[in-house]
């Protein structure tokens, strides 16, 4: 069941680990900033 919908598993992990989700969001923001600087 989970294999067919991996997104649900990710959401569950995020809900169970809000700290990890916040850390991932911060990492995504940093990566986007670096990418934007590189492109410019």
What characteristics describe this protein?
single chain, 40 residues, mainly alpha, 0% strand
Helix and strand arrangement:
Blueprint: H1 6-16, H2 18-39
Helix pairs in contact: 1-2
Region (Disordered): 1-24
Description:
- The protein has 40 residues and is an all-alpha fold.
- Helix content is 82%, strand content 0%.
- It contains two helices and no strands.
- Helix 1 packs across helix 2.
- The longest helix is centred in the last third of the chain and has 22 residues.
- The radius of gyration is 14 Å and the shape is elongated.
- The chain starts with 5 loop residues before the first helix and ends with a helix.
- The mean pLDDT is 68.
The percent of residues in helical segments reads over 70%
- The end-to-end span amounts to 43 Å
Mean pLDDT: 68
Q: Describe the sheet with the most strands.
A: none
| Tally of helical segments | 2
Radius of gyration: 14 Å
In short:
The protein is an all-alpha fold.
């Amino acid at each position: 069941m989970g294999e067919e919908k991996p997104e649900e598993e990710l959401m569950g992990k995020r809900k169970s680990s809000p700290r990890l989700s916040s850390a991932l969001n911060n990492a995504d923001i940093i990566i986007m900033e670096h990418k934007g600087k590189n492109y410019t």
